[in-house]
Amino acid sequence: MSQENNSKEEIYSLETILSTITKVKNNTAKKRLIFDQAPIGGISVKWVIAFLISLPILLYAGIFNPTMFQMLGIAQAIIFFIVFLSMVMILSVAVVFINNNKVTRDVTISWNRYFKDVDLKLALSSGSTPYKDFFKHYNLALKENLTEKALEKRLQEIFATMEEENQILMEAIRRNQNRR
Asked: What is the pTM of this model?
């Protein structure tokens, strides 16, 4: 039990946190659709993607093999394939949702150590949040090849700037948090 608590309370570096939620290519960061657990000691995103791709292939192989196809016939095989494929799609969405929530939950403690007043979910949100320009500013910081401490300082400045630019929205969020 104590080992489980130690792994949950582990403080990750800023670079590790950002590598779980972003994909950097040519000094340009993009939010990952499926977060990567590998930097924090979990399953690599490549294995999750391989699992999601293999599900429809396995379903096809299971329904349209000669034995099952002969038992079902063409009409039932197609209907089964469509029904089970919709279940596979629902399962895929659930796997991605669970994976992303687990990564977010695991890195939030470390994120709060670096950026106490910045909600990670708001920074990653694609909707209208005070931090909607996070990736634009993060990409500019990446092009400067900053050290981890310099990157942390720059991101703190960036978050402060975004909060100032969206002061009305920040006030509304803070009022809403006080109601809870």
From this structure: 0.80
